[in-house]
Amino acid sequence: MTRIVFELEIGRSRLLLMYLLLIHGLMLVMVVNLPLSAAWSVLVVLLILASCVYYCRQYQWLNGSSAIIKIERDNNDQWILYDRAGKQYSTQSLNSSFVISKVVILHFNSSSLWQNKSVLIVDDSVDQTLFRQLRVYCRNPKTFQQ
């Protein structure tokens, strides 16, 4: 019988918002300083603004229907992901992770190539105790051994 041994709800992050605004702002400054025609400059500025809105919607505001808002791990090390639309992505296996003190990125594989997911988790968007447990789990050398 499988049971849930880890559950984490993902919320909004001020740190991620500042990062997204800083990166997109720097890109806008760089584009304005490039020797491009006015039409190309406007096009690139619009693309950068669209990128900023897309990533803020997906990761910061969690308004995108495919934004992952909750993850769970069962005792068989299978993960279940929940998106904003209520869709459940089950039987995901954790393929790899990137872990630093404030950010964890989880890369999941599914039996279907089209359902592979990556989840970005910033420390100020989740419970600190659960975030620490997730970091310890991902840093454990036995986690990714086959």
Topology:
Blueprint: E1 4-9, H1 14-33, H2 38-60, E2 68-74, E3 78-83, E4 88-99, E5 103-109, E6 117-122, H3 128-139
Antiparallel strand pairs: 1-2, 2-3, 3-4, 4-5, 5-6
Helix pairs in contact: 1-2
- Beta-strand content bin: 25-35%
User: Total number of β-strand segments?
Assistant: 6
Q: Order of strands across the widest beta sheet? A: 1-2-3-4-5-6
Q: How many DSSP H or I helices?
A: 3
Query: Whole-number average pLDDT?
Result: 87
Q: Regarding quaternary structure, how should these chains be classified?
A: single chain
By helix and strand content, what is the structural category? Answer: alpha+beta
In short:
By secondary structure, the protein is an alpha+beta fold. It is built from three helices and six strands; from the N terminus they run βααβββββα. It has two domains: 4-11 and 67-144; 14-60.
Describe the structure.
It contains 3 helices and 6 strands, in the order βααβββββα. By secondary structure, the chain is α+β, with helices and mostly antiparallel strands. The chain has 2 domains: 4-11 and 67-144; 14-60. A 6-stranded antiparallel β-sheet has the order 1-2-3-4-5-6. A hairpin with a 3-residue loop joins strand 4 (88-99) and strand 5 (103-109). The radius of gyration is 18 Å and the shape is elongated. It starts with a strand and ends in a 7-residue tail after the last helix. The mean pLDDT is 87.
